[in-house]
Design brief:
Blueprint: H1 23-27, E1 37-39, E2 42-44, H2 46-50, H3 59-69, H4 105-120, H5 127-132, H6 150-159, H7 162-174, H8 185-190, E3 193-200, E4 204-207, E5 213-215, E6 217-222, E7 226-231, E8 234-236, E9 244-246, E10 253-255, E11 268-276, E12 279-282, E13 286-290, E14 304-307, E15 312-314, E16 326-330, E17 343-345, E18 351-353, E19 366-371, E20 376-379, E21 385-388, H9 404-407, E22 413-419, E23 424-430, E24 435-438, E25 440-444, E26 448-453, E27 463-466, E28 471-474, E29 483-491, E30 494-512, E31 517-519, E32 525-528, E33 530-534, E34 538-543, E35 546-547, E36 557-560, E37 563-566, E38 575-583, E39 586-596, E40 599-603, E41 609-614, E42 619-621, E43 625-628, E44 632-637, E45 649-651, E46 657-659, E47 668-676, E48 679-690, E49 694-697, E50 702-705, E51 710-713, E52 715-717, E53 725-730, E54 733-734, E55 741-743, E56 747-750, E57 759-766, E58 771-781, H10 790-793, E59 803-808, E60 814-820, E61 831-837, E62 847-853, E63 858-862, E64 868-876, E65 891-892, E66 903-908, E67 914-920, H11 924-927, E68 933-940, E69 948-952, ...
Helix pairs in contact: 4-7, 12-14
């Protein structure tokens, strides 16, 4: 028969072996006799059990079932020990040699609690038993005969009760456990072990050629292993090479070059083998390489000639060293090159200039390479720059010029990439390495670089920017970091992007590295080698350094992919196995030995230890042990009684015994007994319980006169067997006992009190096990006056803290708490506050429990289920609160199902296809039991579909793949291990919103020439809660386009009226609906064409400006406001009506945008936003004005807050990115500098102290990045001088004409025109539409054609018109040359245009 360990009692309790099952008995309907269990109380039998535990299956019945079930496997012996030291089964262990039965689904369900409880009990395992019990595995059924057992298993599953299933599965779990050898040297030296590699060189081993070569390989084993090496997969004979030797008692190779030789001759791949009689262990394949630092090739470098403003790359091209050198740039005088956003070094070592400036000539540039092993720096010949420039003088004042490039005559240009080339590239990186992406761009001005990831955000915890934002580094790359990244290079001339596709591959990495397996004879186990990688790695098993396929066959070993299964191991099964997993990116090699030990139990701690502990404390008795098979440990007290477990005792899996609360009766001798099939060992621990140390007469606060004597009492009660030490502290520092002080056992006396004696005094009473302390404050009076009323003269203070808390009357839902009040310090105690702390949800956090009058010192506290309470008390008087008392002992109430459910249940969508369900988690006092969790249920509202449910441990759950904005019914129910809470209430939530569809039936009606009526219906698919409508409309006439007006309406408004500014222009309306996500699909309509649109004859009359307003929430009227109107040569066939100014109180936001479109070039947009509101009486913010450019905007507003008020400017771009800028009250205007060209923003201003006081939300759009490279000539000196000369000539001409007129000369008379002259100030807001952009208006004196378009100028400057023919030109310094003349032909043909009032001759007519 085989031997088997019994997990039962030892010592007084007996052990019994059950006979093997006989298949003959089962066939005849009989079973072997049931086992008998001999204990100190007698013999347990079937008859004996029936009288004490009717609920347990009868012994004869279950023994017959087990015997018949295992009958088919009786070709090998079966032994089972069944110790019954409690009404429940402690353990069952069944082992059979023919294989391991596969667990069924029923077994898993029945045994999950048993196995889980065993694992969860190990809270504080010792290092030895924790390692022994960390592997609990079930072997996969393999081998012959496993399929034939199927019917027997099904029969047994139907007959055996669940507790038998659980017990057998627990036994199966024990088969897979491994034994760990303790670090005790005596045990290490006695036990035989296969070799284990303990130290080795790195896989890529680079050595310095100037030093001797060292290749490390060390291993341990018993007996000590021997070593040999291979080089390039061939045996390396060390004895034949005099330079090569091996260290003593080690496998480390030493190659000595002191007597000559070349290190390069020894390069190759080395592998170390450590061997003893139990197996062979292998090191990694070590690739030996000799460091190289080649010299830089000699070359003559010509000066580099480059135009100022052009990009430049200085290539380094260092020699290929091993390892690669570190590159840096310096001048030939060894001064470092200053790098910035414009000039920087790339990752490849090249030096990049985004644009070259003249000051770059002031130094030369040399590339330097520093080699790691040789510690040498090699310098390349220096580059010399020659910069060609239009501004040869390097004026240092221009370096700080706001427009340095224009000041130096450098043409601005859009960015382009210097590295990498093109618009897209790809990069591969290995998992766990750092990913470095680089983008270097040229351009004038120097471009800014920004990084983005498509479809997501950059990983903030791993991403960082380097080299002035030109490089993005992501550390410790993982598979989720793959994807497309792009860098955006932009300056004020434009932007470009480069997309980098990142693929993450992976060298093999361990998922489950094989561990050493130490088994007892006959035990089963397995080695697991699981690795992952990209591509998926292959796995190769070896044994003792040889492929497993070529090893001798072993019937007890079976390979199943990444697992080797061992059954019925014997001493001959010892070996070292290697698992090699590899792919194209690398390999991993692991050694794991299988050792079979047969060791009786052995105690590892000193014998007969003495443990002393304070009353009511918690303690733990340790009993470390070792044995193979793993022994079973049990505890007994005073050499009698049953095994200690349960109640006030708790036994951990590592054998430690914990006593939760020490009482006097717990004192005694505790015996731990370790048992396995080879024997048993025991050890004893003597436990002594000591009384706590308490100060029962504490020192009191005193007020003393200077020169008097003060005595501070401190009387202590302690355990007489412990040595007591009483010490004093003053102001929390050790007190020096001088000549004026006397310290006795129970007091401290101070003679001749002085001012320096004032302070706090602490009495500290301590023993070697515990301590107690009490504090008092001494006040020293300077004057000698004696107060008439001593108590009245004493200062009142906060009470001392209560002490000696005690719990009594322990009930299921209540407990009585009693305490001793502290000194009231001359102010009666009015209240006591009882606080509690629990150690499950918020350990260390105290909560108020209840409040009691100051006249009581005992109270009954109502408790919640399953809370491990700890209490403290705070005393309160009129001065304040005392310090909290020392905490009481802990008391845990029993559990119960929850009586409530979580509050604040909400369902809201965070995306258009999900719904996030959130709630406020329940606290410790409402959990009522362990493992608090929440059952979340949801279903669509008003449908009959079944509830979806999931169990959640946190406080949120996200439902995915939901339709857009549909209502859901939601329920969240609390549950713990004791049951479920009450039925929860149903809450209505909504899935995420999306952009709405276009408004339906958008109608544009024009009842007359003065108004346009707009009507629409709500969108067919709102896809959320409508927040309003956005209407954009622009007037147009042919190719002329006026200012765009933006109106925002409330969600219930479906009508709008536009007051026309002139009767001849048409309007283009674009209407879209808004939800909280944004604006949806837009619908566009145009106003009807007037009948006279095709026959324009003259410009419309000037109309006064109007005020924007709405008259109701559903019907509004607005007048298209225009500024800076330009005369348009269109006249209607009927006289235009005069439109009166309408002023109505409004909350509608109006945004005006001016756009001029011509056929000769792209449009230029300048956006300005202003809200005109009257100043209210209450505190508010109004008249927010936005003046934007392409990349910035100036913000101003009005308010009636007091001085010193802070504001916040909040703006959101079209990508829904919200930003805010804090602003001081006097800091207007505010400039937003991080805007993007051509993007729409919404903006509001609110008070920093009260966010509810906010301006209305306005919308504005930045202009696109301009491409005009001309400098502003209006500030040039030559231009100002030229204009003065022209003005002088005009004045002389006017004087001459006036003199001639006064003499009666004849002058041509201007024909009477139907249309009056245009306004003298074209920028006056005259109510007509402005069809030109301010930046593109012609100079005064330019002519327009009959169709209203501006004629093509003969020069971009339009100053050529003042010269004669084409001879007008500029000097090299920019001054204008040529005689000023008036083009008579042009005047004759264009004299009837709107600009004739600005010509000199027409000016005379105006004077007439």
């Amino acid at each position: 028969m085989r031997r088997l360990a019994a997990r039962g009692a030892a010592g007084d309790a007996g052990e019994v072996a059950a006979p093997a099952a006989d298949s003959t008995h089962c066939a005849q309907g009989r079973s072997p006799s049931p086992p008998r269990l001999v204990t100190s109380s007698g013999i347990y039998s079937d008859a004996g059990m029936s009288g004490t535990d009717q609920s347990r299956p009868r012994t004869t019945q279950w023994w017959q079932e087990i015997s018949c079930w295992l009958g088919p496997f009786s070709s090998r012996s079966f032994v089972c020990f069944l110790p019954f030291f409690s009404p429940r089964l402690i353990d069952v262990c069944a082992i059979w040699d023919t294989g391991v039965l596969p667990p069924t689904a029923d077994w898993k369900g029945a045994s999950s609690g048993v196995a889980g409880a065993r694992l969860n009990e190990a809270e504080t395992l010792s290092s030895i038993q924790e390692a022994q019990l960390e592997r609990l595995e079930v072997a996969t059924p393999c081998g012959p005969g496993s399929r034939e057992r199927g019917p027997v298993l099904r029969m047994a599953r139907q007959q055996l009760p669940p507790w038998v299933h659980a017990a057998i599965l627990l036994c199966l779990l024990s088969l897979g456990r491994a034994i760990e050898i303790p670090m005790d040297p005596s045990i290490q030296n006695e036990l035989s072990q296969p070799p284990t590699i303990t130290k080795q060189s790195v896989k890529d081993h680079i050595v310095d050629p100037r030093d001797n070569i060292l290749i490390e390989c060390e291993a341990k084993g018993n007996p000590a292993p021997s070593f040999h090496w291979t080089r390039n997969s061939r045996f390396f004979n060390i004895a034949k090479d005099p330079r090569v030797s091996m260290k003593r008692r080690s496998g480390t190779l030493v190659i000595d070059f002191r007597s000559g030789g070349r290190p390069e001759e020894y390069e190759g791949e080395y592998q170390c083998f450590a061997r003893n009689k139990f197996g062979t262990a292998l090191s990694n394949r070590i690739r030996l390489q000799v460091s190289k630092s080649p010299l830089w090739p000699k070359e003559n470098l010509d000066p580099v000639v480059v135009q100022e403003g052009a990009p430049l790359t200085l290539q380094c091209n260092p020699p290929p060293g091993l390892p690669s050198p570190v590159i840096f740039w310096m001048s030939s005088t060894m001064d470092p090159i200053t790098q910035d956003k414009r000039v920087s070094q790339g990752h490849n070592g090249d030096l990049y200039f985004s644009n070259v400036m003249l000051q770059d000539m002031q130094t030369d540039y040399s590339c330097n390479a520093r080699f790691h092993f040789t510690h040498t720096i090699q310098q390349k010949n220096a580059f010399t720059l020659k910069v060609l420039t239009n501004h040869p003088h390097n004026d240092s004042s221009l370096r700080n010029h706001p427009d340095m490039y224009s000041a130096r005559g450098v043409a601005e240009r859009t960015p382009s990439f210097m590295y990498p080339q093109g618009t897209a590239s790809s990069q591969m990186v290995l998992r766990g390495m750092d990913l470095l992406l680089e983008c270097i761009a040229s351009g004038v001005p120097t471009p800014d670089i920004a990084w983005y990831k498509k479809g997501g955000d950059l990983p903030s915890d791993k991403a960082k920017f380097e080299n002035f934002n030109k490089a993005l580094r992501i550390t410790n790359v993982s598979e989720e970091d793959s994807g497309e990244y792009f860098c955006l290079a932009s300056n004020k001339m434009g932007s470009i992007r480069h997309t980098i596709s990142v693929r993450v591959k992976a060298a093999p990495y361990w998922l489950d590295e094989p561990k050493n397996l130490i088994l007892a004879p006959g035990e089963d186990g397995r080695l697991v080698c699981r690795a992952s990688g990209n591509p998926k790695p292959t796995i190769q098993w070896m044994v003792n350094g040889e492929p497993l396929q070529s090893a001798p066959p072993n019937p007890n070993r079976e390979v199943a992919g990444d697992t080797i299964i061992f059954r019925d191991t014997q001493i001959s099964s010892r070996a070292v196995y290697q698992c090699n997993t590899s792919n194209e990116h690398g390999y991993l090699l692991a050694n794991a030995f299988v050792s079979v030990l047969d060791v009786p139990p052995r105690m590892l701690s000193p014998r007969n230890q003495l443990i002393r502990v304070i009353l009511y404390n918690r303690t733990r008795l340790d009993c470390p042990f070792f044995g193979s098979p793993i022994p079973t440990l049990r505890w007994f007290k005073n050499g009698q009684g049953s095994n200690l477990d349960g109640g006030n005792y708790h036994v951990y899996e590592n054998g430690s015994l914990e006593i939760k609360m020490i009482h006097k009766e717990d004192q005694g001798i505790y015996t731990c007994v370790a048992t396995n099939i080879l024997g048993k060992a025991e050890n004893q621990v003597r436990l002594e319980v000591k009384d706590p140390t308490r100060i029962f007469r504490m020192p009191e606060d005193q007020v003393a006169k200077r020169g008097t004597t003060v005595q501070l009492e401190c009387r202590v009660k302690h355990d007489p067997s412990l040595k007591l030490t009483v010490s004093w502290l003053k102001d929390d520092e050790p007190l020096y006992i001088g000549n004026r002080m006397k310290k006795e056992d129970d007091s401290l006396t101070i003679f001749g009190v002085a001012e320096r004696d004032q302070g706090s005094y602490t009495c500290v009473a301590s023993t070697e096990l515990d301590q107690d302390l009490a504090k008092a404050y001494l006040t020293v009076l300077a004057d000698q006056a004696t107060p008439t009323n001593r108590l009245a003269a004493l200062p009142k203070g906060r009470p001392d803290r209560p002490r000696d808390l005690e719990l009594t009357d322990l009930a299921e839902r209540s407990v009585r708490l009693t305490w001793i009040p502290g000194d009231d310090n001359n102010s009666p105690i009015t209240d006591y506050v009882v606080q509690f702390e629990e150690d499950q949800f918020q350990p260390g956090v105290w909560h108020d429990h209840s409040k009691f009058p100051g006249s009581v010192n005992s109270a009954v506290l109502q408790l919640s289920p399953y809370v491990n309470y700890q209490f403290r008390v705070i005393a309160i008087n009129e001065v304040g609160s005392s310090h909290p008392s020392l905490p009481s002992e802990r008391y845990r109430t029993s559990g119960a199902p929850p009586e409530s459910n979580p509050a604040d249940v909400k369902g809201e969508g965070t995306r258009k296809n999900n719904m996030e369900i959130t709630w406020t988690p329940m606290n410790a006092t409402s959990a009522f039991g362990p493992n608090l969790r929440y059952i979340v249920k949801w279903r669509r509202r008003e449908t009959r579909e079944s509830w979806n449910n999931v169990t959640v441990w946190g406080s949120r759950y996200v439902v995915g793949q939901t339709p857009v904005y549909v209502p859901y019914e939601i329920r969240v129910q609390a549950e713990n291990d004791f049951g479920k809470g009450p039925e929860p209430d149903t809450v209505i939530g909504y899935s995420g919103e999306d952009l709405p569809s276009a408004p339906r039936r958008f109608r544009v009606r024009q009842p007359n020439l003065e108004t346009i009526n707009l009507e629409w219906d709500h969108p067919e698919h709102p896809n959320g809660i409508l927040t309003g409508y956005t209407l954009r409309y622009v007037p147009f006439n042919g190719t002329k386009v006026g200012k765009q007006i933006v109106e925002n309406f409330s969600p219930n408004q479906t009508k709008f009226t536009v007051q026309r500014a002139d009767p001849v222009s048409r309007y283009r309306f674009t209407l879209s609906a808004r939800t909280q996500v944004g604006s949806g699909e837009a619908v566009t309509e145009e106003s009807p064409a007037p009948p006279n649109e095709a026959t324009p004859t003259a410009a419309p009359p000037t109309l006064p400006p109007t005020t924007v307003g709405t008259v109701s929430s559903t019907d509004a009227t607005v007048t298209a406001a225009t500024t800076e109107a330009t005369t348009v040569p269109i006249i209607p066939t009927v006289a235009p009506a005069t439109i009166a100014t309408t002023t109505v109180a409004t909350t509608t936001t109006t945004t005006a945008a001016t756009t001029t479109t011509t056929t000769e070039g792209p449009p230029t947009t300048t956006t300005g936003t202003k809200i005109h509101e009257s100043a209210p009486d209450e505190q508010s913010i109004w008249n927010v004005t936005v003046l934007p450019n392409s990349k910035w905007a100036n913000i101003t507003w009005k308010h009636n807050f007091g001085p010193g008020t802070d504001f916040v400017v909040e703006y959101i771009d079209s990508n829904h990115t919200k930003k805010s800028v804090p602003v001081k009250a006097q800091a207007q205007p505010v400039q937003l500098t991080d805007l993007y060209p051509g993007m729409t923003y919404t903006l509001r201003v609110y008070s920093r102290d009260n966010e509810g006081i906010s301006s209305t939300v306005i919308t504005f759009m930045t202009s696109t990045a301009y491409t005009n490279n001309q400098a502003d000539i209006a500030t040039q000196g030559w231009f100002i001088g030229l204009m003065c000369a022209i003005a002088l000539l005009v004045l002389i001409l006017l004087i001459v004409c006036f003199i001639k007129r006064s003499r009666g000369g004849k002058y041509p008379v201007r024909e009477k025109k139907d249309v009056p002259l245009g306004p003298e100030d074209p920028k006056e807001e005259d109510g007509s539409f402005d069809y030109s952009d301010e930046d593109n208006k012609p100079l005064q004196g330019s002519q327009t054609s009959l169709d209203g378009t501006i004629k093509q100028q003969e020069s971009d400057d339009s100053l050529v018109d003042y010269g004669e023919g084409g001879e007008g030109q500029f000097n090299e310094d920019g001054s204008f040359i040529g005689q000023y003349t008036v083009k008579k032909d042009k005047e004759e043909t264009e004299g009837n245009e709107s600009s004739e009032a600005t010509s000199p001759v027409n000016a005379i007519y105006s004077l007439a």
